[in-house]
Amino acid sequence: MSFSKLTSQELQKLAKLSGFEVSADEALKFQDQLEVILDCIREIEKVPFSETVNNNKAINVFREDKVKPSESLDILKNAQQVEKSFFVVPKILKDHA
Amino acid sequence: MISPFSTIKEIRSKIKNKEITPSEVFKFYQSRSKELNSEYNAFIDVFDAPIEPTVLEGKLGNIPCAIKENLCIKDRVTTAGSSILKNFKPSYNAEVVDKIKAQGGLILGKANMDEFAMGASGEFSAFGAAKNPWDKTRTPGGSSSGSAAAVAAGMVPWAMGSETGGSLRQPASYCGLVGMYPTYGLVSRFGLLAFGSSLDQPGPICRTVHDTARIMSVIAGHDPKDSTSLPEPRIDYTKNLDGRLPHNLKIGVIKESLSGAVDPEIKEMTEHAIKTLESMGCTIKTIEMPSFKFGLAVYFIISRAEAASNLSRIDGTLYGMRTEKFYQDLEELYVKTRSKGFGAEVKRRILLGNYVLSSDHRDVFERANLVRNMIRNELDAMFEDVDLLFSPTTSNFAFKLNEAVNDPMALYLGDYFVLPNCVAGFPAISIPAGLSKAGLPAGVQFIGPRLSEELLFKAAFALEQELGLSLQPNI
């Protein structure tokens, strides 16, 4: 299992995946706090499996492919910027350097 | 008039006997809530007028309640305790809200909570921590902190909360109330702002088992809008509460219940409850659940992975806050919104979730799911031998505010008894077991097989009647 100590580079990589910034101060605090929780998670390595316990009884739930009426324009109410029936968002594609 | 600590049953009886009018009941609780909220911060919002029910009569007719802030109420600000959703108004009701309204329930306000249900003390709310009505320097527990504080302080007779890993039962224990985690899938999660989708369940916090059974009778049952909703019809759980237990009920006491890890006064309360059950004709057996010690690790991995996934939808595009009007590009919108809008605990959980979901560590997540099955199988096997499990709900009393907020691990160590059944999706109910010498409540709990709510209510009601406690803080 891959369980080495959490480095600051790895933390920054996780922050990027998580879609928020972590300042240098926050990073130090988070690293310590997360390390403690990772210690607990590492316990999972100790579980003695004599056989694979994979008897998940989950089933898929489907519904009929029927169109139902919906109040779709209601959802525009919470948007910060709206134009006609569109949500306005910033530019999606970055400029090339 | 009425005592603020009246049960739903008592209030309904007084209304029926014309000792009080419905309007007087509502005004009484509303003014008490407004008066006490600056002290206990149980509510994020106390409404000026109740949300109109869809019918006037019904099982909850004329009874006010608080709704946890992560349950959607149409056109009312629903923040999940987070500043990132501070102006968010859902366009629909949560299913449980519709069910409550359809039985005449009056919604008096939105209860405070840890941000996105991530916490065990209420201290991670963006709106300030709720306080324990038994001791204002202490937490009421969390994440259903405001729900528990509101009921314990007699601001409402009952409240909706939610639980993912103890968030109903731990506050119930800390506040001297009854809290239930239903079988996963029994109560619809439609309109519950998701934290851990395979763990979350809405549930009630009430003063008594009978009241709790009444609420469950209203909110349980199949909902086609929630694809994880079990195909169960609604049952009246109050029907067979006669104080008697099934003949020779076999109770398995979890071995760690009487260990050194549990506060000695809680151990004493647990022992007293066990002796009481014995005197009521139960067969008591001490049992071991070897897989329980992995409950915390499994819970960490699965809940954080699901949280990271669920919270990725909160990015400022369709709803929620934005930090400014103009951004270079979409990525800047995401990063600025989420950096500012999420609190530290939410960020920690998302980071950890993405850790276990990243390709370098996927074996962690896979293994956690296997251990989860192991816990389920062990519980199923144990229930061939005993009818119900029993333990203290929490190993400690409500801790002081600010004690654990910088030490996430300390918050979770008290959850040993409440986590494994959540991980496995099995139901449990916590009832008050007594007061410490310092005047703090603690609870004991029954855990049952899946869909054993009727038996859980029967056992909890019978024990509650025998213990004969009537816990009310001095407010």
First and last CA, distance of chain A: 41 Å
Largest protein-protein interface? A-B, 49 and 61 residues
Uncertain segments of chain B of ≥5 residues (pLDDT<50)? none
Biggest sheet of chain A, strands in spatial order?
1-2
Sum up the overall morphology of chain A in one term: flat
Helical stretch count of chain B?
A: 14
Proportion of residues in extended strands of chain A: under 5%
Coarse morphology of chain B? globular
What is the H-and-E element order of chain B? HHEEHEHEHEEHEHEHHHHEHHEEH
Query: Structural class of the helices, strands and pairings of chain A?
Result: mainly alpha
Radius of gyration based on Cα positions of chain A: 23 Å
Rg of chain B, alpha carbons: 21 Å
Number of strands of chain A: 2
Mean pLDDT of chain B: 95
Overall pLDDT metric of chain A:
84
Please give the largest β-sheet of chain B.
11 strands, mixed
Compact description:
With 97 residues, chain A is mainly alpha-helical. Chain A is built from two helices and two strands. In chain A, 30% of the residues lie in helices and 4% in strands.
Describe this structure in words.
The complex is a heterodimer of chains A (97) and B (475). By secondary structure, chain A is mostly helical. Chain A has helices at residues 8-18, 24-41, and strands at residues 82-83, 86-87. In chain A, strands 1-2 form a two-stranded antiparallel sheet. Chain A starts with 7 loop residues before the first helix and ends in a 10-residue tail after the last strand. With 475 residues, chain B is of the alpha/beta class. Chain B is built from 14 helices and eleven strands. In chain B, strand 10 and strand 11 (441-447) form a beta hairpin. The longest helix of chain B is centred in the C-terminal third of the chain and has 24 residues, at 362-385. The radius of gyration of chain B is 21 Å and the shape is globular. The mean pLDDT of chain B is 95.
